[in-house]
Structure formats: structure tokens, C-alpha cells
Amino acid sequence: MGPKQRRTLEAVFEDPVRANIPWRDIEAMLKAAGATIGEGAGSRVRIALHGVRAVFHRPHPEKETDRGAVKSLRRFLTEAGVTP
């Protein structure tokens, strides 16, 4: 994982929960961590990482994730064993 992806990972785990993390940065961080990302119906994104699977919604029309999505992403990453 490069320095930009590591900063994104740290931003996901920051308190208070941030709501301004660009989704493309999150996808790049997940790919760097070894995740498989697939497209679902509509704005759904299927992610598999270290045997853990989740479905997230790509934010639209804005480009940043909301706090609820960041909390869900934290839980997913923790279950997959990826922490800063």
C-alpha cells in the first residue's frame, strides 16, 4: 500500500468519523489492500477482501462518502484484518 492509500486508510479510522473522503480514494485503497471489486446493479459495488464480502453503494451525485458508509467500511476493514 502506497502513502496515499495509507492516508486514506487512516482517514477512514479517524474520530470523529469523516464525511469527506472521496469514493475513488477508498476504491484505490481497497485495491491496494488486495480487494476484488465488482459492479452490482445500479450504484452497488461488491467488495471481497481476505474472505470477507460486503456490498456498498457508490455515492452519487456527490463524490464523497457519508458518515454511515465510512462506519460500515470501518467494520468491513476490521473484519478483514486491515487496520492502520
What does this structure look like?
This protein has a single domain, classed as Metal Transport, Frataxin, Chain A (2-Layer Sandwich). It is 39% helix and 19% strand. The chain contains 3 helices and 3 strands, in the order H-H-E-E-E-H. The chain is globular.
Compact summary:
With 84 residues, the protein is of the alpha+beta class.
Question: Which terms would index this structure?
Answer:
84 residues, three-stranded antiparallel β-sheet, alpha+beta, Metal Transport, Frataxin, Chain A
CATH class: Alpha Beta
Instruction: Work out the number of β strands.
Output: 3
Helicity level, as a percent range?
Answer: 25-40%
Averaged pLDDT: 93
Corresponding CATH architecture: 2-Layer Sandwich
Order of helices and strands: HHEEEH
Tertiary shape: globular
Number of self-contained structural domains: 1
Query: What name is given to the CATH topology?
Result: Metal Transport, Frataxin, Chain A
Termini separation (Å)?
A: 11 Å
- The percentage of residues in β strands lies in 15-25%
Q: DSSP helix count?
A: 3
Rg, alpha carbons: 12 Å
Spans of at least 5 consecutive residues whose pLDDT stays below 50 are none
Within the largest sheet, what's the order of strands? 1-2-3
State the oligomer. Answer: single chain
- Class based on secondary structure composition and strand pairing: alpha+beta
Main beta sheet: 3 strands, antiparallel
List the helices and strands and how they pair.
Layout lengths: L2 H10 L10 H10 L3 E4 L4 E6 L2 E6 L9 H13 L5
Antiparallel strand pairs: 1-2, 2-3
Helix pairs in contact: 1-2
